Hints:
Elements: H1 2-11, H2 23-28, H3 33-52, H4 57-72, H5 75-87, H6 93-101, H7 107-128, H8 132-156, H9 169-173, H10 177-197, H11 201-226, H12 231-250
Helix pairs in contact: 3-4, 3-8, 3-10, 4-7, 5-6, 5-7, 5-12, 7-12, 8-10, 8-11, 8-12, 11-12
Amino acid sequence: MRLFLVALQFLTRLPVRLRRFEPAWLNDCVRHFPLVGTLVGAVGAAVLVGAAQLWPAWVAAVLALAATVALTGGFHEDGLADTFDALGGVVPRDKALAIMKDSRIGSYGALALGLSLLLRAALLAVLATRPMLGAVAALLASHALARAAAVGVMVSLPYGGDVEHAKAKPLALAVALHNFVIAIGWCALLLAALTVAGVHVPKLATAVVAAAFAAFVMRQWLQCRLSGYTGDGLGATEQLAEIAVLLAFTASF
């Protein structure tokens, strides 16, 4: 529970208060990132289902997206923009890391962020016109699997930035494999629950493959350009994996 609260404090804007804090907790709390993602997805699903009763699908989709962004404070969106600003152009590693630290947003970041928001809103609007079980499942799975994807990148790569200036130094050192195994366990429990609820297994399987593919692509990109991950790179991984899972749920097959 303590590590879950640390993860909740780290990934969301919820007013979580802890009486004391140990740096090692931040390193181990990543095991619960998918659980926090499930909570964020549940909020988005509740807004989507409720808003769809009152407004057109595209309005409900934007409101659901706004709810999740507000809950996380645009944490992952910021990483997406910074990553594409840094890696979108052909610049040396040191220059790319300097661009990531710059609070200003450039054309690559603006394009990536705008297209990400537009595509997610469009996908949620499609889901809002279909049976709501599928929409709820898509939101829960996309947020949980996307955060598991980020943990997978963390486990498989060393930190590629400046450790001394990292925003979360324990995460910059190393993430133990067992934390990733626990994160996958949370995803497995969620997928099992969705299967029992009646969600089609092929959709869930495709969603898992889509999230894994997004994680693999980001891992290779970060390794090639930075020789490791950064916090912004993890945010970009989460966003791309989230989109990949939503695409899997909305695909016609």
